[in-house]
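queue> pop job 88
queue> type: inverse folding (structure -> sequence)
queue> payload:
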């Protein structure tokens, strides 16, 4: 399977020490986990600090991490070891088809209010209809991740939010067909923020006919009972919500 060329978002990793000094810098290769890239440079990730810039052909998205030398952080592994890339079991390329290499940067938020945590349900236009995830989606060209969070939460649930901070970067890599049928070597980079909603109301999907079927405020105690993908379950567990 020979990959077809595609312009990928430009993402740069910046490792900083506790004084804010840059000690490591690297582009994020397609399919790579940011923590694993920094570990390869000799640094263990303590936490993500911030994202700045725009991930498109005209700009660069910089992800800033607090890092410490390997061995200085007890039990730090830096991230999952690279292994065989997961493939859709039924993927067969038609004659003349080639895999399109595609890296997608998306921004999401843990939106909390007096009514619970805001969650969105995937529609039939996705590969996993009926599953639930945090609200969010792809960062548009020229758009900052925080701007994308505010826009996506309004499109998916009609809620106005204040974005507090970036708390988690999640990386996934697999090969399969996109919902539209295109075969892809796909790298998802998820930027997960915390956000608050001061005036929550019953969610309404404004982006009718899109990838969101419904949205709801869910009590934290009920999150574990929602059907979710393994990656979203892992993200919520990392954030201490499951």
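queue> result:
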């Amino acid at each position: 399977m020979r990959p077809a060329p595609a312009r990928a978002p430009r993402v740069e990793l910046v490792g900083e020490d506790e004084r804010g000094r840059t000690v490591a810098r690297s582009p994020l290769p397609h399919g790579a986990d940011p923590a694993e890239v920094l570990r390869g440079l000799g640094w263990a990730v303590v936490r993500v600090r911030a994202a700045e810039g725009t991930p498109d052909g005209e700009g660069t998205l910089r992800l800033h991490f607090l890092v410490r030398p390997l061995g200085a952080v007890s039990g730090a592994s830096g991230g999952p070891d690279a292994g065989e890339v997961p493939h859709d079991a039924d993927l067969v390329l038609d004659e003349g088809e080639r895999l399109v290499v595609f890296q997608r940067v998306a921004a999401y938020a843990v939106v909390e209010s007096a009514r619970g945590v805001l969650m969105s349900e995937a529609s039939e236009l996705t590969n996993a209809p009926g599953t639930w995830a945090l609200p969010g989606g792809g960062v548009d060209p020229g758009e900052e991740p925080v701007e994308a969070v505010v826009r996506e939460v309004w499109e998916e649930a009609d809620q106005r939010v204040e974005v507090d901070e970036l708390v988690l970067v999640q990386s996934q890599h697999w090969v399969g067909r996109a919902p539209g049928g295109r075969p892809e070597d796909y790298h998802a980079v998820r930027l997960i923020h915390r956000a608050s909603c001061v005036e929550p109301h019953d969610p309404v999907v404004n982006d009718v006919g899109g990838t969101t079927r419904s949205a709801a405020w869910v009590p934290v105690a009920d999150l574990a009972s929602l059907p979710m993908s393994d990656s979203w379950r892992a993200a919520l567990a990392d954030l201490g919500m499951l």
